[in-house]
Amino acid sequence: MSEYTAPIPGLDAAEIAEPGAVTVVVPTFNESANIRRLLRLITESVPARLPCEVVFVDDSTDDTPEVIRAAARDCPFPVAVLHRAEPVGGLGGAVVAGLKAATSQWIVIMDGDCQHPPSLIPELVATGEQANAALVVASRYIEGGSRAGLAGGYRVAVSRGATWLTKALFPRRLHGISDPMSGFFAIRRSAVSADELKPLGYKILLELAVRSRPGRVAEVPFVFQDRFAGESKSTAQEGFRFLRHLAGLRTTSPAARMAGFGLIGASGFVPNLAGLWALTVLGMGYLPAEILANQLGVAWNFLLIEQLLFRDRRAHRRWWDRLGRFALLANADLVLRIPLIALLVGRFGMGALPATALALVMTFVLRFVGTEALVYLP
Ligand code: GDD
Ligand code: MN
Q: What is the pLDDT of residues 132-149, one digit of tens each?
């Protein structure tokens, strides 16, 4: 993808730190007031025996890149700015671009607003070496860590809920990671499968832990600091992105996708029944009302599967082509079901109830397979 292969202005191949060293990747979005302090703290933290380079991956609309280049002149280590013309994937996309540009054996990911203490960089790397780990997470949720800088009870509650839900969805992949929401961690470059990653928003550690499966994990406690300058860039929209990210990660296998398809289909009863109720109240006859209301359920299902299940398989067809095919399959399902039940009862002597249940299951599987093959495959 083109946004990942942009040249890195200022990164001279001859200056790149040797293996065994650390590349610090910092995503930035309008952080000009934090840069000098961050670079000073990194300078003070990283001992001379740990060769280091810093790569900023910047999507700013302000003068952050210029501020970085100016501040870099006072740094004893190489500093590069990768400014993305096309900021795909948000924070996570920026981090993946940084992972691809990083050259050292260890890569530390940290925020640009000084909420992650740079004094921990050497400890993260040393812990990884000692424990022979591939991933070292700076955690707020182990002894010695805290989320002091998470402003407000609301954000604490959201963070707790999100952590619980995420751990429940990926018990195996997140084993040993108490803080999968952390944006501060060290990972061995050899453990990153950058081409497999599909980052979407803030939770890049989750993405790496689930898709790259880095193997042995260690943790180091840390105190989430107050933001030095400016405000968090997270929004309510970021919350929805997170849910889409979770859904995408959880439905990589066909079986999980089929389960998701079923859940979304079941949720379609809500708009369907609401529409049926509204139309009959307005005086429409039952049959035309049911046919119309069913289209409401179809539209609802289409929106949800597009966002949650087939997000990265939409490019093969235009949206109206996909909607048309999806609606056709959904309505074929309705038309097929009645003769199928009649067949099961009449020819195979089944009772009406098991025949209906079996017909529902059969048409559901057909609809799922049809949707995969006819709507979302090239
Ligand atoms: N390049 C780029 N593109 N950087 C971004 C973007 C983006 O779209 N959005 C945010 N950033 C940068 C910010 O400039 C900052 O350096 C860092 O990513 C973190 O963004 P904040 O907006 O400060 O995040 P936060 O403090 O709300 O959340 C942090 O803590 C959470 C834990 O509570 C992040 O580390 C989250 O990943 C973490 O889950
Ligand atoms: Mn922050």
A: 999 999 999 999 998 876
**Phi, psi of 13, deg, nearest 5:** -55, -35
- Report yes or no on 4 lying in a domain: no
Q: Which of 168, 183, 189 is nearest to 18 (CA)?
A: 189
Q: How far apart are CA 270 and CA 311, in angstroms?
A: 23
CA 173 to ligand 2 centroid distance, Å: 26
Other Cβ atoms within 10 Å of 312 Cβ, number: 10
Among 223, 252, 281, where does a domain finish? 252
Find all residues with CB under 8 Å of 43, minimum gap 6, and list them: 75, 76, 77
128 lines ligand 1 (CB under 6 A): no
Which atom of ligand 1 sits closest to the CA of residue 29? 14
pLDDT digits (tens, 9 = 90+) for 243-260: 999 999 999 999 999 999
Say if strands 135-139 and 106-109 run parallel, antiparallel, or are unpaired: unpaired
Has residue 282 got a pLDDT over 90? yes
Number of domains within the chain: 2
164 domain residue, yes or no = yes
The pLDDT, as a whole number, for residue 151 is 65
Ligand at shortest distance from the CA of 184: 1
User: How close is the Cα of 226 to the center of ligand 2, in Å?
Assistant: 8
Domain containing 99: what range? 22-252
28 within ligand 1 shell (Cβ under 6 A): yes
Interval between CA 52 and ligand 1 midpoint (Å)? 22
